[in-house]
């Protein structure tokens, strides 16, 4: 069994329940009484509510089928085919080499969850949810990749104690126990695979960052955990005055160098191979970015990393963290369930709330900690902290 940071709303020892909690317990018991269900569905005033709840529970239960319908359509390239032209089940059947009777089940299922829709003359087209999947290769790459997590969850209770015994952990070589020789662990083929996936899924994140944060005031940027260097390359095209610094494990930086070369950016960039666990960060930039990096690591490593970032920045410098974050108690959850499980299967990291990351930033010395509003927080949220210009 591996040791995880214990963080969260539930303290290990609790006091006596408050009057409000006792009242809520009574309501739970009353609402879950079988007699109330009978009453709720027989009464026209409450029936709609009972129906809605039943549908919601059913959808949660059936979610595993929905995800496999999605994966089947993706693997069979049905979205790409229907993006070109509407097709009948029989035409699709010839193309994907699956018996029409069986394929029809997949098609009906996909229509019912809005991935596909029927058009005239029994032809099929893209449904409302199929359109973005057909449009973005990155979404299709993530759907395929999620199969690893699905496999790891075959025994969901055993998974909780042995989350790193599965395919996801094997896929991510660096995200396990702190202090390991991550450079050695990151065998080149794995690095290439995970970096390619990162790049495929990164477009949305890049778009969120570039359209939400004003980079105009910065001169030198250090992108820590840069991966293939896609974000910093796109940023460099938009902000032509910026000097670029890339920090990552040596085998990953070799791949990032290719991205810089393809974008004619080698002349503006300096590579800093290293591990932020073992090495300090170079003091070269007035902006440090951590894009989808902190959530891969346990609190102790993140604290060290934020401290190293603080130490490497000049007075007035900024640290920008961009990654999916957990919802605060008063916010509607976005991708919380998915990301909590993904990060558990992957390694020692966790999904943190902006307030948790903010507290860690403050501990490292940062001030003026702000969430930068962005259009699609499900892809990533943006949190900044500044190294104050005043002496403490
Ligand atoms: C999830 S990927 C994110 C890559 C890129 N920023 C993106 O959003 O696509 C995390 C990156 O952190 C790098 N990384 C992990 N541990 C590291 C360490 N100890 N030192 C330096 N980089 C590390 C990985 O090699 C990988 O490129």
Molecular structure report:
A seven-stranded mixed beta sheet has the order 5-4-3-6-7-9-8, with helices on both faces. It is of the alpha/beta class. The chain has helices at 19-31, 34-42, 44-75, 78-84, 89-96, 100-112, 130-135, 137-152, 156-161, 167-171, 182-185, 188-212, 230-238, 250-262, 299-312, 336-346, 354-364; strands at 116-118, 124-126, 220-224, 243-248, 269-273, 287-291, 318-323, 367-372, 381-386. The chain is built from 17 helices and nine strands. The protein folds into two domains: 19-135, Winged helix-like DNA-binding domain superfamily/Winged helix DNA-binding domain (Arc Repressor Mutant, subunit A), CATH 1.10.10; 170-386, Rossmann fold. Helix 3 packs across helix 8 (137-152), helix 5 packs across helix 6 (100-112) and helix 8 packs across helix 12 (188-212). Strand 8 (367-372) and strand 9 (381-386) form a beta hairpin. Helices cover 52% and strands 11% of the residues. Bound molecules: S-adenosylmethionine. S-adenosylmethionine is lined by residues 174, 182, 198, 202, 205, 225-227, 231, 248-249, 252, 275-277, 291-293, 296.
Q: What is the H/E order? A: HHHHHHEEHHHHHHEHEHEEHEHHEE
Ligand inventory reads: S-adenosylmethionine
Side by side, the strands of the main sheet go 5-4-3-6-7-9-8
The beta-strand count equals: 9
Please sum up the structure shown.
This protein is α/β, with parallel strands linked by helices. The chain has 17 helices and nine strands.
Attribute tags:
392 residues; Arc Repressor Mutant, subunit A; 2 domains; two-stranded antiparallel sheet; globular; binds S-adenosylmethionine
